[in-house]
Specification:
The N and C termini lie far apart (70 Å). By secondary structure, the chain is an alpha+beta fold. The strands form 2 sheets. Strands 1, 2, 3, 4, 5, 6, 7, 8 and 9 form a 9-stranded mixed β-sheet that branches. The longest helix has 22 residues. The chain is 33% helix and 22% strand. It contains 16 helices and 16 strands. The protein is elongated, with a radius of gyration of 30 Å. It comes from Urochloa decumbens. This is Type 2 DNA topoisomerase 6 subunit B-like.
Length: 502
């Protein structure tokens, strides 16, 4: 049984495309929840059953709707998987939703077909959540024997009223399904079918998973799969179009930072895991591309391999992290009507920032308590991803302080070069040129002194920008051999021939 903070419970507060009702208005707001929360929860359970199976599985979401909105036929939603056999207790999670949904929208009935790998038969049930008596809720239907066949799986169907809300459901379901594909969960192939029936112009829309994605998911780590999925998500502009030609040309130029954190109880092999991926895109040449002048980021948030509304603790981490240390200026953040975290940037020098956060339990269908623990792990994984990004691309992600210091480098380098080149002391002049790595008069005549000093300064700034104790670790502009303790001159000797090295 899921905990009170499980993602499908949180979705009950974020399923509507209209502005969120306040807590006091929630029960009296237009009850559109069944069109989003019920399919979401069925998909959530199906994914967890596939995870428990630990074998290659398939998840299929099928939606059939009449061609005419006024048709008396209902909208049929089916969620099937080839994971382990379902437990009927799972569906009790829909109790609250069924009570808050008018009968004319959903009668609270689920048709369940399920079987386990070791079962001899396929079992069918009708589950009516509107029934008060528990004995009347479950109706066992005809059983079909498997004739020694070996397989497992579950299919759950529900019928919703065919109203204008069906269009919103289809749009939401397509976007929701696209986000599932971002994770590229191991051993899980996903597909979505939308079928319009009832006239000669019936249309079928199939959204299968790319076979290459399935192969990639088996071979790669979960973090690598998330990186690959997020890249494709960005290159297709959030799957709102085919892959953008302009973005594809720049795929290798995408900058990626990854971070992970976990708190596993080794004795019980339990504990939450958090993975964070940050993807940075440079400005595209095509002004119609979505990677141009994007001053906000919608964070993709996943729990247990399913996209869901972001938790408050994770959102608090996003808006409280020290973004300026990595060159970002956070203007503010908010949670939109669908439960997505949105970060707004100020003076964004980059074209686009995409962020994905995935929290999950190693063992599916287990409870995990403690938002404080989740908050700590999300913060740790996020800072690790930012540090990774900065380590690989230090010049692009200097802290705001480092950027200000770097602005003075050209003028300072010019002044130092002027002092060296204007000196009449040939020994001093040659020593400086040698320390800069310039070994010939040609280098000097070509004006390479100032660029060399500038390059060294920038490298030092970038190096120190990644260190916490800069004073203890900062290198010198001109690195020289250190004097041994035995060769230190005693001030009492009064040796005035001491030579100070740059």
């Amino acid at each position: 049984m899921a905990s009170a903070s499980s993602p499908h419970r949180k979705l009950l507060h974020f399923v509507s495309f209209s502005p969120l009702p306040t807590p006091s208005q929630f029960r009296t707001a237009p009850p559109r929840d069944s069109f989003f929360a019920a399919p979401f929860q069925l998909v959530y359970w199906a994914v967890q059953r596939c995870r428990v199976s630990e074998s290659p599985c398939r998840l299929t979401v099928s939606l059939k709707r009449p061609a005419e909105p006024a048709s008396p036929s209902q909208l049929r939603v089916s969620v099937s998987d080839t994971g382990v056999r379902s437990k009927l207790e799972e569906f009790l999670e829909l109790n609250d939703l069924a009570r808050e949904t008018p009968v004319e929208k959903w009668d609270g009935t689920l048709l369940i077909t399920t079987t386990g790998i070791n079962d001899e038969a396929i079992y069918r049930y009708r589950f009516n959540l509107h029934e008060e008596l528990s004995s009347a809720r479950f109706t066992r239907l005809a059983t079909t024997y498997k004739n020694h066949a070996t397989f497992s799986g579950t299919e759950v169907c529900l019928c919703l009223s065919n109203e204008a809300d069906a269009d919103d459901l289809i749009l939401w379901l397509v976007g929701f399904f696209h986000k599932i594909l971002v994770l590229r969960a191991a051993n899980l192939a996903c597909e979505l079918f939308v079928e319009q029936i009832g006239n000669a112009e019936s249309r079928n829309v199939c959204l299968p998973q790319d076979p290459d994605d399935v192969h990639h998911s088996v071979m790669a780590s979960s973090s690598d799969r998330l990186v690959s999925g997020l890249k494709d998500y960005a290159l297709s502009h959030g799957y709102t179009c085919d892959k953008c030609d302009t973005c594809i040309l720049n795929r290798d130029l995408l900058k990626t930072g990854t971070g992970a954190a976990n708190n596993v109880d080794r004795r019980k092999a339990k504990g939450p895991h958090v993975e964070v991926v940050i993807l940075i895109a440079r400005t595209a040449s095509d002004l119609s591309c979505w990677t141009v002048n994007c001053s906000s980021t919608q964070v993709l948030y996943f729990e247990d391999f399913v996209p869901c509304p972001i938790s408050k603790s994770s959102f608090d981490v996003l808006v409280s992290v020290d973004w300026q240390s990595y060159g970002f200026k956070l203007k503010g953040g908010f949670i939109d009507d669908e439960g997505n975290a949105v970060l707004e940037w100020d003076d964004m020098p980059l074209a686009r920032v995409d962020i994905a956060i995935h929290t999950y339990l190693e063992c599916a269908m287990q409870e995990c308590q403690g938002s404080q623990q989740d908050r700590h792990l999300v913060r740790k994984a996020l800072k690790s991803a930012l540090s990774h990004l900065k380590a690989d691309h230090a010049g692009d992600f200097l802290s705001c302080h480092g950027q200000r210091v770097r602005e003075y480098v050209p003028d300072l380098a010019e002044s130092i070069a002027g002092l060296i080149l204007s000196s009449n002391d040939k020994e001093f002049h040659d020593e400086c040129i040698s320390l800069l790595g310039l070994g010939s008069d040609q280098d000097v005549s070509d004006g390479l002194v100032q660029p060399s000093i500038c390059e060294k300064m920038i490298r030092i700034i970038e190096l120190n920008d990644t260190k916490e104790n800069v004073e203890d670790n900062a290198p010198y502009l001109f690195e020289c051999e250190k004097l041994d303790e035995d060769s230190q001159l005693d001030e009492e000797d009064g040796d005035e021939d001491m030579v100070f090295d740059f």
